[in-house]
Protein backbone atom coordinates (compact mmCIF):
# COMPACT_ATOMS: atom_id res chain seq x y z
CA UNK A 1 0.00 0.00 0.00
CA UNK A 2 1.27 3.45 -0.92
CA UNK A 3 2.03 5.65 2.09
CA UNK A 4 3.54 8.89 0.73
CA UNK A 5 1.46 12.00 1.51
CA UNK A 6 -1.29 9.88 3.08
CA UNK A 7 -1.95 12.48 5.78
CA UNK A 8 -1.86 15.46 3.41
CA UNK A 9 -4.29 14.28 0.75
CA UNK A 10 -7.56 12.34 0.57
CA UNK A 11 -6.10 9.33 -1.25
CA UNK A 12 -2.41 9.52 -0.40
CA UNK A 13 -2.50 5.99 1.04
CA UNK A 14 -3.46 4.39 -2.29
CA UNK A 15 -1.61 3.08 -5.31
CA UNK A 16 -3.50 2.77 -8.61
CA UNK A 17 -2.26 0.74 -11.57
CA UNK A 18 -3.61 2.45 -14.68
CA UNK A 19 -3.81 0.29 -17.81
CA UNK A 20 -6.13 2.70 -19.62
CA UNK A 21 -5.68 4.96 -22.60
CA UNK A 22 -7.51 7.69 -24.53
CA UNK A 23 -10.00 9.53 -22.26
CA UNK A 24 -12.55 7.75 -20.04
CA UNK A 25 -10.02 5.76 -18.00
CA UNK A 26 -7.31 8.44 -17.87
CA UNK A 27 -9.93 11.01 -16.77
CA UNK A 28 -10.77 8.76 -13.82
CA UNK A 29 -7.16 8.13 -12.84
CA UNK A 30 -6.31 11.83 -13.15
CA UNK A 31 -9.07 12.51 -10.61
CA UNK A 32 -7.51 9.94 -8.29
CA UNK A 33 -4.05 11.42 -8.80
CA UNK A 34 -5.33 14.94 -8.06
CA UNK A 35 -6.70 13.58 -4.79
CA UNK A 36 -3.30 12.20 -3.86
CA UNK A 37 -3.25 8.59 -5.06
CA UNK A 38 -0.03 7.29 -6.55
CA UNK A 39 -1.07 6.48 -10.10
CA UNK A 40 1.22 4.39 -12.27
CA UNK A 41 0.29 4.67 -15.94
CA UNK A 42 1.31 1.59 -17.93
CA UNK A 43 1.87 2.14 -21.66
CA UNK A 44 3.21 0.29 -24.65
CA UNK A 45 6.93 0.89 -25.26
CA UNK A 46 7.76 3.17 -28.21
CA UNK A 47 4.11 4.13 -28.86
CA UNK A 48 2.31 4.75 -25.59
CA UNK A 49 -1.21 6.10 -25.11
CA UNK A 50 -2.90 6.72 -28.47
CA UNK A 51 -3.63 10.31 -27.51
CA UNK A 52 0.07 11.20 -27.34
CA UNK A 53 -0.13 11.56 -31.14
CA UNK A 54 -3.65 13.03 -31.39
CA UNK A 55 -2.67 16.46 -32.60
CA UNK A 56 -1.97 19.15 -33.48
CA UNK A 57 -1.68 21.08 -31.27
CA UNK A 58 1.43 19.71 -29.59
CA UNK A 59 3.32 21.03 -26.60
CA UNK A 60 6.32 23.15 -27.57
CA UNK A 61 9.74 22.76 -25.99
CA UNK A 62 11.79 25.60 -24.55
CA UNK A 63 13.16 26.40 -28.02
CA UNK A 64 9.65 26.84 -29.41
CA UNK A 65 9.67 23.61 -31.40
CA UNK A 66 6.83 21.09 -31.25
CA UNK A 67 7.33 18.01 -29.08
CA UNK A 68 5.60 14.64 -29.39
CA UNK A 69 3.27 15.49 -26.48
CA UNK A 70 -0.21 16.25 -27.86
CA UNK A 71 -2.47 18.65 -25.98
CA UNK A 72 -5.14 15.92 -25.95
CA UNK A 73 -2.87 13.64 -23.91
CA UNK A 74 -1.90 16.48 -21.57
CA UNK A 75 -5.57 17.08 -20.68
CA UNK A 76 -6.04 13.79 -18.82
CA UNK A 77 -2.72 12.56 -17.45
CA UNK A 78 -1.22 14.94 -14.91
CA UNK A 79 0.00 13.66 -11.56
CA UNK A 80 0.87 10.17 -12.85
CA UNK A 81 4.05 8.16 -13.12
CA UNK A 82 4.57 6.62 -16.55
CA UNK A 83 6.11 3.22 -17.12
CA UNK A 84 6.49 1.44 -20.46
CA UNK A 85 5.99 -2.33 -20.36
CA UNK A 86 5.14 -4.76 -23.15
CA UNK A 87 2.32 -6.75 -21.57
CA UNK A 88 2.10 -9.02 -24.62
CA UNK A 89 5.26 -10.77 -23.38
CA UNK A 90 5.44 -13.22 -20.45
CA UNK A 91 8.10 -11.07 -18.80
CA UNK A 92 5.92 -7.98 -19.11
CA UNK A 93 2.94 -9.83 -17.70
CA UNK A 94 5.03 -10.97 -14.74
CA UNK A 95 5.99 -7.36 -14.03
CA UNK A 96 2.35 -6.25 -14.06
CA UNK A 97 1.39 -9.10 -11.73
CA UNK A 98 4.09 -8.05 -9.27
CA UNK A 99 2.91 -4.45 -9.45
CA UNK A 100 -0.67 -5.58 -8.80
CA UNK A 101 0.49 -7.20 -5.56
CA UNK A 102 1.67 -3.77 -4.44
CA UNK A 103 -1.42 -1.86 -5.62
CA UNK A 104 -4.91 -1.13 -4.33
CA UNK A 105 -6.71 -0.53 -7.63
CA UNK A 106 -6.30 -1.67 -11.23
CA UNK A 107 -8.25 0.09 -13.96
CA UNK A 108 -8.25 -0.99 -17.61
CA UNK A 109 -10.14 -0.31 -20.83
CA UNK A 110 -9.12 -3.20 -23.06
CA UNK A 111 -11.69 -4.94 -25.21
CA UNK A 112 -13.97 -7.32 -23.37
CA UNK A 113 -11.98 -10.37 -22.26
CA UNK A 114 -8.71 -9.29 -23.92
CA UNK A 115 -6.63 -9.27 -20.74
CA UNK A 116 -7.58 -12.86 -19.90
CA UNK A 117 -5.11 -14.21 -22.46
CA UNK A 118 -2.36 -12.32 -20.62
CA UNK A 119 -3.39 -13.61 -17.21
CA UNK A 120 -4.30 -10.07 -16.18
CA UNK A 121 -8.06 -10.51 -15.83
CA UNK A 122 -9.90 -10.02 -12.54
CA UNK A 123 -10.54 -13.74 -11.96
CA UNK A 124 -6.81 -14.45 -12.10
CA UNK A 125 -5.51 -11.41 -10.25
CA UNK A 126 -8.11 -11.54 -7.46
CA UNK A 127 -6.77 -14.96 -6.46
CA UNK A 128 -3.35 -13.37 -5.97
CA UNK A 129 -4.76 -10.28 -4.25
CA UNK A 130 -8.28 -10.80 -2.88
CA UNK A 131 -8.67 -7.17 -1.77
CA UNK A 132 -7.93 -5.79 -5.26
CA UNK A 133 -10.37 -3.25 -6.72
CA UNK A 134 -10.49 -3.98 -10.45
CA UNK A 135 -12.35 -1.60 -12.77
CA UNK A 136 -13.04 -2.40 -16.45
CA UNK A 137 -14.29 0.28 -18.84
CA UNK A 138 -15.71 -0.82 -22.20
CA UNK A 139 -18.15 0.51 -24.74
CA UNK A 140 -20.97 -1.90 -23.94
CA UNK A 141 -20.07 -3.81 -20.78
CA UNK A 142 -18.98 -7.36 -20.06
CA UNK A 143 -22.21 -9.04 -21.17
CA UNK A 144 -25.11 -8.55 -23.57
CA UNK A 145 -25.23 -8.88 -27.38
CA UNK A 146 -22.88 -5.92 -27.97
CA UNK A 147 -20.21 -6.87 -25.42
CA UNK A 148 -17.53 -7.57 -28.02
CA UNK A 149 -18.08 -4.38 -30.01
CA UNK A 150 -15.61 -1.52 -29.83
CA UNK A 151 -17.23 1.55 -28.30
CA UNK A 152 -16.34 5.14 -29.16
CA UNK A 153 -17.81 8.25 -27.58
CA UNK A 154 -19.27 9.59 -30.85
CA UNK A 155 -21.05 6.31 -31.58
CA UNK A 156 -22.35 6.07 -28.02
CA UNK A 157 -23.72 9.63 -28.12
CA UNK A 158 -25.78 8.52 -31.10
CA UNK A 159 -26.82 5.09 -29.81
CA UNK A 160 -27.58 6.35 -26.31
CA UNK A 161 -30.02 9.08 -27.35
CA UNK A 162 -27.96 12.21 -26.68
CA UNK A 163 -27.81 13.24 -30.34
CA UNK A 164 -31.59 12.87 -30.66
CA UNK A 165 -31.83 15.66 -28.07
CA UNK A 166 -28.94 17.84 -29.27
CA UNK A 167 -29.02 20.05 -32.36
CA UNK A 168 -31.35 22.46 -34.10
CA UNK A 169 -34.96 21.46 -34.67
CA UNK A 170 -35.84 19.49 -37.76
CA UNK A 171 -37.06 21.84 -40.49
CA UNK A 172 -34.91 24.72 -39.21
CA UNK A 173 -31.71 25.87 -40.95
CA UNK A 174 -28.96 23.53 -39.80
CA UNK A 175 -31.53 21.19 -38.29
CA UNK A 176 -30.55 17.65 -37.37
CA UNK A 177 -28.68 15.66 -34.75
CA UNK A 178 -25.43 16.97 -33.27
CA UNK A 179 -22.84 15.46 -30.97
CA UNK A 180 -21.60 17.46 -28.02
CA UNK A 181 -18.48 19.55 -28.63
CA UNK A 182 -16.48 17.45 -26.17
CA UNK A 183 -16.43 13.68 -25.58
CA UNK A 184 -19.01 14.02 -22.85
CA UNK A 185 -19.80 10.30 -22.55
CA UNK A 186 -16.12 9.43 -22.07
CA UNK A 187 -15.78 12.15 -19.45
CA UNK A 188 -18.89 11.11 -17.56
CA UNK A 189 -17.76 7.49 -17.66
CA UNK A 190 -14.49 8.61 -16.08
CA UNK A 191 -16.46 10.42 -13.38
CA UNK A 192 -18.71 7.41 -12.71
CA UNK A 193 -15.60 5.20 -12.57
CA UNK A 194 -14.10 7.54 -9.95
CA UNK A 195 -17.24 7.27 -7.81
CA UNK A 196 -17.43 3.48 -8.19
CA UNK A 197 -13.77 3.00 -7.25
CA UNK A 198 -14.13 5.18 -4.15
CA UNK A 199 -17.26 3.23 -3.14
CA UNK A 200 -15.43 -0.09 -3.61
CA UNK A 201 -12.49 1.17 -1.56
CA UNK A 202 -14.84 2.14 1.25
CA UNK A 203 -16.32 -1.37 1.20
CA UNK A 204 -12.81 -2.87 1.17
CA UNK A 205 -11.77 -0.76 4.14
CA UNK A 206 -14.79 -2.05 6.10
CA UNK A 207 -14.64 -5.71 5.08
CA UNK A 208 -11.25 -6.44 3.51
CA UNK A 209 -13.00 -7.52 0.30
CA UNK A 210 -12.00 -6.36 -3.15
CA UNK A 211 -14.45 -6.36 -6.04
CA UNK A 212 -14.94 -6.02 -9.78
CA UNK A 213 -16.42 -2.91 -11.41
CA UNK A 214 -18.00 -3.23 -14.87
CA UNK A 215 -18.54 0.19 -16.47
CA UNK A 216 -19.98 0.66 -19.97
CA UNK A 217 -20.12 3.87 -21.98
CA UNK A 218 -23.60 3.01 -23.27
CA UNK A 219 -24.89 2.46 -19.72
CA UNK A 220 -23.47 5.82 -18.71
CA UNK A 221 -25.02 7.61 -21.67
CA UNK A 222 -28.45 6.13 -20.94
CA UNK A 223 -28.11 7.13 -17.28
CA UNK A 224 -27.07 10.65 -18.35
CA UNK A 225 -30.40 11.18 -20.07
CA UNK A 226 -31.62 12.14 -16.58
CA UNK A 227 -34.89 14.09 -16.76
CA UNK A 228 -35.20 13.45 -20.50
CA UNK A 229 -35.03 9.72 -19.91
CA UNK A 230 -37.57 10.04 -17.14
CA UNK A 231 -39.81 12.17 -19.38
CA UNK A 232 -39.80 9.43 -21.98
CA UNK A 233 -40.45 6.60 -19.51
CA UNK A 234 -43.34 8.55 -18.00
CA UNK A 235 -44.95 9.63 -21.28
CA UNK A 236 -43.68 7.03 -23.79
CA UNK A 237 -43.11 10.00 -26.11
CA UNK A 238 -39.62 10.68 -27.47
CA UNK A 239 -38.50 14.29 -26.83
CA UNK A 240 -37.48 16.32 -29.89
CA UNK A 241 -34.49 18.56 -30.48
CA UNK A 242 -34.90 22.22 -29.62
CA UNK A 243 -31.46 23.58 -30.46
CA UNK A 244 -30.71 26.41 -28.04
CA UNK A 245 -34.39 26.96 -27.28
CA UNK A 246 -36.52 25.48 -24.51
CA UNK A 247 -39.69 23.48 -25.18
CA UNK A 248 -41.61 25.00 -22.27
CA UNK A 249 -40.21 28.51 -21.68
CA UNK A 250 -40.00 31.56 -24.00
CA UNK A 251 -37.68 33.44 -24.19
CA UNK A 252 -35.14 30.90 -23.00
CA UNK A 253 -32.49 30.63 -25.70
CA UNK A 254 -29.59 32.31 -27.46
CA UNK A 255 -30.00 35.60 -29.29
CA UNK A 256 -27.66 37.43 -31.68
CA UNK A 257 -26.41 40.85 -30.57
CA UNK A 258 -24.51 43.50 -32.46
CA UNK A 259 -21.21 41.73 -31.79
CA UNK A 260 -21.92 38.16 -30.69
CA UNK A 261 -24.51 36.01 -28.96
CA UNK A 262 -26.03 36.03 -25.49
CA UNK A 263 -28.19 33.65 -23.52
CA UNK A 264 -31.51 34.91 -22.18
CA UNK A 265 -33.28 32.78 -19.58
CA UNK A 266 -36.45 34.68 -18.70
CA UNK A 267 -38.13 32.24 -16.35
CA UNK A 268 -41.18 34.37 -15.49
CA UNK A 269 -43.41 37.10 -16.92
CA UNK A 270 -41.74 39.95 -15.03
CA UNK A 271 -38.30 38.98 -16.32
CA UNK A 272 -39.68 38.93 -19.86
CA UNK A 273 -41.17 42.41 -19.47
CA UNK A 274 -37.90 43.77 -18.10
CA UNK A 275 -36.03 42.20 -21.02
CA UNK A 276 -38.12 43.83 -23.75
CA UNK A 277 -38.35 47.12 -21.85
CA UNK A 278 -34.54 47.32 -21.76
CA UNK A 279 -34.68 46.63 -25.49
CA UNK A 280 -37.03 49.61 -25.86
CA UNK A 281 -39.83 47.40 -27.18
CA UNK A 282 -42.60 48.47 -24.81
CA UNK A 283 -45.13 47.22 -27.33
CA UNK A 284 -43.90 43.66 -26.82
CA UNK A 285 -44.21 44.08 -23.06
CA UNK A 286 -47.87 45.05 -23.42
CA UNK A 287 -48.87 42.80 -26.32
CA UNK A 288 -51.63 40.45 -25.04
CA UNK A 289 -50.26 37.62 -27.23
CA UNK A 290 -47.11 37.57 -25.09
CA UNK A 291 -48.51 38.41 -21.67
CA UNK A 292 -47.85 35.02 -20.07
CA UNK A 293 -45.36 32.23 -20.64
CA UNK A 294 -47.96 29.79 -22.04
CA UNK A 295 -48.99 32.48 -24.54
CA UNK A 296 -45.37 33.17 -25.46
CA UNK A 297 -44.81 29.46 -26.04
CA UNK A 298 -47.97 29.36 -28.18
CA UNK A 299 -46.79 32.35 -30.24
CA UNK A 300 -43.09 31.45 -30.24
CA UNK A 301 -42.77 31.65 -34.04
CA UNK A 302 -44.03 35.25 -34.01
CA UNK A 303 -42.21 36.52 -30.92
CA UNK A 304 -38.72 35.07 -31.32
CA UNK A 305 -37.95 36.78 -34.67
CA UNK A 306 -38.99 40.11 -33.14
CA UNK A 307 -36.70 39.54 -30.18
CA UNK A 308 -33.83 38.62 -32.49
CA UNK A 309 -34.15 41.97 -34.29
CA UNK A 310 -34.34 43.78 -30.96
CA UNK A 311 -31.20 42.08 -29.59
CA UNK A 312 -29.12 43.18 -32.56
CA UNK A 313 -29.52 46.82 -31.52
CA UNK A 314 -27.04 46.49 -28.63
CA UNK A 315 -23.66 44.88 -28.04
CA UNK A 316 -23.26 41.71 -26.02
CA UNK A 317 -21.77 43.54 -23.06
CA UNK A 318 -24.37 46.33 -23.15
CA UNK A 319 -27.13 43.74 -22.94
CA UNK A 320 -25.47 41.80 -20.14
CA UNK A 321 -24.77 44.89 -18.05
CA UNK A 322 -28.33 46.16 -18.37
CA UNK A 323 -30.00 42.78 -17.86
CA UNK A 324 -27.88 41.85 -14.84
CA UNK A 325 -28.69 45.20 -13.24
CA UNK A 326 -32.40 44.48 -13.78
CA UNK A 327 -32.19 40.93 -12.46
CA UNK A 328 -32.87 39.20 -15.76
CA UNK A 329 -30.89 35.93 -16.03
CA UNK A 330 -28.45 36.15 -18.91
CA UNK A 331 -24.93 35.30 -19.89
CA UNK A 332 -22.36 35.42 -22.68
CA UNK A 333 -21.35 32.60 -25.00
CA UNK A 334 -17.61 32.81 -24.52
CA UNK A 335 -14.95 31.37 -26.74
CA UNK A 336 -12.08 29.78 -24.83
CA UNK A 337 -9.95 32.93 -24.98
CA UNK A 338 -12.78 34.72 -23.19
CA UNK A 339 -13.25 31.84 -20.76
CA UNK A 340 -9.68 31.92 -19.53
CA UNK A 341 -9.71 35.73 -19.29
CA UNK A 342 -12.97 35.77 -17.32
CA UNK A 343 -12.36 37.33 -13.88
CA UNK A 344 -14.34 34.58 -12.12
CA UNK A 345 -12.35 31.82 -13.83
CA UNK A 346 -9.13 33.67 -12.92
CA UNK A 347 -10.26 34.14 -9.32
CA UNK A 348 -11.01 30.42 -9.03
CA UNK A 349 -7.52 29.62 -10.41
CA UNK A 350 -8.84 27.29 -13.10
CA UNK A 351 -5.59 27.49 -15.08
CA UNK A 352 -2.38 26.10 -13.61
CA UNK A 353 1.24 25.78 -14.73
CA UNK A 354 3.31 22.68 -13.94
CA UNK A 355 7.00 22.05 -14.49
CA UNK A 356 7.63 19.83 -17.50
CA UNK A 357 10.89 17.98 -18.33
CA UNK A 358 10.81 18.96 -22.02
CA UNK A 359 8.80 22.17 -22.26
CA UNK A 360 9.97 23.75 -19.03
CA UNK A 361 6.35 24.26 -18.01
CA UNK A 362 2.94 23.25 -19.30
CA UNK A 363 -0.40 25.10 -18.95
CA UNK A 364 -3.28 22.92 -17.78
CA UNK A 365 -6.90 23.23 -16.70
CA UNK A 366 -7.20 22.82 -12.93
CA UNK A 367 -9.41 20.38 -11.05
CA UNK A 368 -12.76 21.84 -9.94
CA UNK A 369 -12.60 19.90 -6.65
CA UNK A 370 -12.30 22.13 -3.57
CA UNK A 371 -11.69 20.28 -0.30
CA UNK A 372 -11.02 22.27 2.85
CA UNK A 373 -8.93 19.70 4.76
CA UNK A 374 -7.32 17.67 1.98
CA UNK A 375 -7.07 19.99 -1.03
CA UNK A 376 -6.11 18.80 -4.48
CA UNK A 377 -2.35 18.76 -4.99
CA UNK A 378 -0.67 18.87 -8.38
CA UNK A 379 2.38 16.67 -8.02
CA UNK A 380 3.71 16.76 -11.57
CA UNK A 381 2.92 17.43 -15.20
CA UNK A 382 1.65 14.68 -17.50
CA UNK A 383 4.64 12.34 -17.80
CA UNK A 384 6.64 11.59 -20.91
CA UNK A 385 6.51 8.02 -22.22
CA UNK A 386 8.35 5.70 -19.85
CA UNK A 387 9.60 8.59 -17.73
CA UNK A 388 9.38 6.62 -14.47
CA UNK A 389 9.89 3.03 -15.64
CA UNK A 390 13.24 2.46 -13.98
CA UNK A 391 12.33 4.32 -10.79
CA UNK A 392 9.09 2.35 -10.30
CA UNK A 393 10.70 -1.03 -10.97
CA UNK A 394 13.55 -0.18 -8.65
CA UNK A 395 11.52 1.38 -5.83
CA UNK A 396 8.40 -0.80 -5.86
CA UNK A 397 9.68 -4.18 -7.07
CA UNK A 398 13.26 -3.78 -5.81
CA UNK A 399 14.74 -4.76 -9.18
CA UNK A 400 18.45 -4.28 -9.55
CA UNK A 401 20.12 -2.20 -12.24
CA UNK A 402 21.23 -5.44 -13.89
CA UNK A 403 17.67 -6.81 -13.98
CA UNK A 404 16.33 -3.55 -15.39
CA UNK A 405 19.08 -3.50 -18.04
CA UNK A 406 18.20 -7.06 -19.05
CA UNK A 407 14.55 -6.07 -19.50
CA UNK A 408 15.60 -3.13 -21.64
CA UNK A 409 17.83 -5.33 -23.77
CA UNK A 410 14.89 -7.66 -24.45
CA UNK A 411 12.66 -4.59 -25.18
CA UNK A 412 10.24 -5.66 -22.45
CA UNK A 413 10.44 -2.12 -21.08
Q: What's the overall geometry? A: elongated
Report the helical percentage.
25-40%
How many beta strands in the DSSP annotation?
Answer: 13
Q: Count the domains.
A: 2
Alpha-beta classification = alpha/beta
The gyration radius over C-alpha positions equals: 26 Å
Give the strand content.
15-25%
The span between the termini is: 24 Å
**What can be said about the biggest beta sheet?**
6 strands, parallel
CATH architecture of the largest domain: 3-Layer(aba) Sandwich
Number of H/I helices: 18
Oligomer: single chain
The average pLDDT value, as a whole number, equals 95
Tell me the name of the CATH class of the largest domain.
Answer: Alpha Beta
Q: Which residues form runs of ≥5 with pLDDT under 50?
A: none
Give me the CATH superfamily of the largest domain.
Answer: Crotonobetainyl-coa:carnitine coa-transferase, domain 1
